[in-house]
Design goal:
8 helices; 149 residues; mainly alpha
Length: 149
């Protein structure tokens, strides 16, 4: 494969790092005080309550609604961990798989609001390309210690 300036593996690393920065921004821009006080989960509960797919409502009611504080922390710190993990390239395939799953959850929850879906679709696409392109081969802690080669 011929590329300009960087190798194919290096371009994939650029995508990985950019995706990590995107996840880090998702964490950074949250109003943590409101989020951890239940604001984020209350908003999601309102979305889930009106969801067109009963399975989403039931799943939210069973998994998230009974534990709003735990879920608020889980979502926020998952975004932070994904961002940091992808930027430094640590446990990268796991981070990409988890990030892809989180984006798909966001996509399904917000299926009626296509204005929000561009971000989730792009992040999911980058995750898939990074995963199948093995974007941890260069510029990563994984490559440095010989993980996932």
């Amino acid at each position: 494969m011929h590329t300009i300036w960087l190798s194919g593996a290096e371009w994939l690393a650029v995508l990985r790092i950019g995706l990590g920065l995107w996840w880090l921004e998702s964490w950074r821009h949250k109003d943590k005080k409101d989020w951890f006080a239940g604001g984020g989960i209350a908003w999601a509960a309102g979305v889930a309550a009106k969801h067109r797919w009963p399975v989403v409502r039931k799943g939210f009611d069973r998994m998230v609604k009974p534990r709003p504080r735990l879920m608020a922390y889980l979502v926020a710190y998952a975004e932070l961990a994904l961002g940091l993990g992808l930027i430094v390239g640590f446990l990268t395939p796991i981070a990409l798989g988890c990030g892809l799953a989180l984006n798909l959850i966001y996509l399904v929850l917000m299926i009626h609001d296509w204005g929000e879906q561009g971000q989730n679709l792009m992040m999911a696409l980058i995750s898939a390309v990074g995963l199948f392109g093995m974007c941890w081969q260069v510029w990563s802690l994984d490559a440095g210690v010989g993980l996932f080669l």
